[in-house]
Amino acid sequence: MSLKARINDDLKTAMRAGEAQRRDALRLLLAALQQREVDERKELADADVVAVIDKMLKQRRESITQFEKGGRQDLAQNERFELELLQTYLPRAMSDAEIEAAVAEAVTVTGAKAPSDMGKVMGALKPKLAGRADMAKVSALVKAKLAG
After folding, report:
1. Could you give the domains of the chain?
2. What is the pTM (predicted TM-score) of this model?
3. pLDDT of 109 above 90
């Protein structure tokens, strides 16, 4: 079953169970997926769906920070719920050791030697790690590896 089909099934289940918050969050996700399909004029593969979810997760994290600064705990709580829900559709997260091994391999494969080669390394890593690792953390590891 594709990831998009699983999300659709979960939406139907939430609707039957009367879970309004879950239903609304899943509708937001499906709308984002639909918009990307319309924009790109293609059916999204699971990797594309993960990329959309990853982008939505980043937005939720930023929103939580802003809402907490503004003293709006009610809105921050809603964003946290959506964040947790979206994370259930991502593949299993990689361990720190797995991420470090992938970074080391990418540096070797791309032949990167200096911090100016960071784009090459990140370009090689992004397809492998998207949705399975925090890319900000990966970027910091790459930067440290190339600087060292």
Report:
1. 3-87 (1.10.1510.10), 96-147 (1.10.10.410)
2. 0.70
3. no
